[in-house]
Each structure stands twice: as C-alpha cells, then as structure tokens.
Design a protein that fits this description.
The structure is a single chain. By secondary structure, the chain is α+β, with helices and mostly antiparallel strands. It folds into two domains: 5-73; 87-332, Deoxyribonuclease I, Chain A (4-Layer Sandwich), CATH 3.60.10.10. The chain has ten helices and twelve strands. It has helices at 5-23, 29-36, 46-56, 60-73, 102-112, 129-135, 195-199, 203-225, 244-253, 257-261, and strands at 87-93, 116-120, 141-145, 148-152, 156-163, 170-178, 181-189, 231-236, 277-282, 284-291, 302-308, 330-332. The strands form two sheets. The chain has a six-stranded mixed sheet. Strands 9-8-7-6-5-12 form a six-stranded mixed sheet, with helices on one face. β3 (141-145) and β4 form a beta hairpin. α3 (46-56) packs antiparallel against α4. It starts with a helix and ends in a 14-residue tail after the last strand. Its cofactor is Mg(2+); Mn(2+). Residues 309-346 are annotated as: Disordered. The chain crosses the membrane at residues 31-52, 59-79.
Amino acid sequence: MFRSRLAWLYLLTAALVWLLGEFVGERTVPTLLLAYAPAVVWLLPAPFVLAWTVWRRRGVAVALAGLLLAAWGAGLLHWQPQQGGTLRVVTFNAARGMLGTPERLAAALRGADADLLLLQETNFVRPDFRGELLARLPGYTVRTGHEVMTLARLPVLSAQTFAAPGSGRNFLETRVRWQGQNLRVVNAHLGTVLVSSALRGDLAQLRQTRDVRAEQVALLASLAAREPGPVLLGGDLNTPPRGAVYRRLRQAFGPDAHDRAGRGPGWTFPGLFLRIDHLMAGGLTPVRARVLENAGSDHRPLLAEFLATSPPLSASSVPGPRPSWPESRVRMSRAEPKERGATEEH
C-alpha cells in the first residue's frame, strides 16, 4: 500500500490541512494560520511529488489524488451552472482611492450594471474623490457609514449603522424594496487577521484580532436574525471560504453566491490568491457570480446575480420586527450633502 511514501505523505498532508482549516480553523493559532494561508500553497509540492513518482514508477495514482485534492481545495476545479438573475449586486473594496481614479472606479462600476453597489474603504484619501466618483454614477441613492457606502437603484426605505466591535468601523444596513418585498442589505468590512503578527512571534496580537473578529461576526449574526425576510450580506469580510467564521456567516445569512453560482477560484484579492470578499443571501437564490477586472484597487469587484427564492409575502402575513440591537450600537444614517450624479435621499 505504501510503495511510495512521498506520494502518500503528500496526499495525507493535503487532506489533514484541509480538515484542520475547515473544521478547527480559528479555534487555535496553528489551525487559524492553516485556514487563512493561500490554498494554492499546497499545490506547490505537487509537480515534484508527481515527477518523483513517475520516475520511480510507483505511487503515480496517489500523487494525482493529492494533486486533485489540493486543486479542489484551492477552488481551481470549482464550476457551477449559471443563468441570468433579476437582482445584480457588486461588492468592492475601493482601497481609499489610493490605487485608482474616480473615472476608473466609476467606469468599472457602471459596466457592472448593478442594482446595488456595496463599497468598502470609502474614507478616500483625496477630499474630492468621493464627489467625483458619485457624479459619475447617476441614478443611485447613497447611504453611508464610516468607510462603507451602499448605492442603490432600488427604492430605499431606511438605513442604520452599527458600530463594529473593536474598531472604528460601522456595519451599514440598508432596506430596499425589490420585487414587492423588503430586502435588508448589510454592508460590512471585518477586521483583518494579522497573520504578520505570527511571523513576528506576537501571538497575543494575533489572538486579539481573532477575538475582535469573533465579536464582529456575532453582531452580524444578530443583525441577520433580527427579523424575517430576505437579507443579503456583502463586503470585504477578510475571511477565506473555510473555517468557523465563514461557516457562521453562511449559517446566519445564507449561501455564498460564489459557492453556489461561481466558477474557478474567485480570487478577489489576487495579490495573495485569496477569496476574502463575499456575497451571502437568505431568501434569494444566487444564479451567477464572477470576479470582475481590476478597477483600481488591490481587491477585485465581485458581481453576483440573484433570483427571488419565494414569492413575496403579503403585508398582513409578515410578523413585526424583533427588538433592535441596543441603541448604544445603533445610529441612524445622518444627512449628507447632495452630490451631482448619485443622490442621497432622506
């Protein structure tokens, strides 16, 4: 059975890494690092292992199994059927405008033809960047939180911001009307797992960022459970598609659009071969998802299309909302000056 120990070692290591990253994940520091490392790393030994087994003429099938497992874990074999949807949503981290121009960002976002644009890191470095960007995105109503912005071509009913624990950021919940029903849209930017702290030996800092993120995810899960009806989460979640945080967000909000309707690895942070920007929805069916071209950021825009999962309920059959999150965590969106192009209604 173990005629080629190297091939078996590679296969078993790839399987163990996947299992630990998926099911243990953030619970311990070593498995957190496994979960958040670029999955393509585990493909790097494959050519050498395969060449060795071919030369030795033993263990080739085992080496190929290890290669396929690593490729599957990296998302390279991911392929889902697709069709057009009636709701188009984009999430995009604009990187504070440091890597692009308003013209470039606006052109990419207009090309997506999205009903909802969920932008993060919109605390732009240039004071006039925001106005120039919105002037080039006519037809959208804008709601803002601290460094997040949601633009909608749908009727906007209300918006609230929620302080993200352990940071100066906000989560922005916007209610829109779509196909005869209310849709809650949560725009979030989770804290980053400072893997660099582990390289410096500062495990305490790594644990602190992990714990802060756990509090932020708990708040998001509470928002999802506040009331019935369709709800959508989008944003730079700084979370790969594995581990406890990712599972909890899917359980709270619904399936990941790329998982259900995407193709390929879906790297939204291509510099490190990572998929950390997500769109998840309950009460909606994702039917197509794809990563768009570079729009002037270190992140790529993620576009997903959805269909309604079920027909809208009548007003008399919808229960009233549950009590909201404590007032200390909630702030109604404040009025902003109107810009040319996109409008900020109140």
